[in-house]
Amino acid sequence: MKERNLEVIKTSMKVGAVLGGLVFLIFGIVPGFHFGGTGTVMLLSKLTGGPLEFTLFVRAIVVLGILVGIFCLGTLSIVLGSVFGTLSGVLISALTSLRVREEKEQVVRH
Question: What is the mean pLDDT of the chain?
Fold first, then answer.
């Protein structure tokens, strides 16, 4: 019985991670692009102490910042999806074991 509950939890975790990835693909790429680029430009302007001259070096760093923003938001979406999936699997497992226990008690009574 415990093996079945563990399989339910593992499966729901994987489903949650896939759903988190899909949510990222639908809703997360553009904000990741925006936050990564904006954050990088703000950080570079604070480090240089003034407005930026967009040289090749600055553009390369902004591209890296954009990639980091997309990667971080994607990772966050997948991790949160798997956490919510695991929580739903634990809930399903608990409800199923409660139902099985009630059925066993009814069989014993009769």
Answer: 91
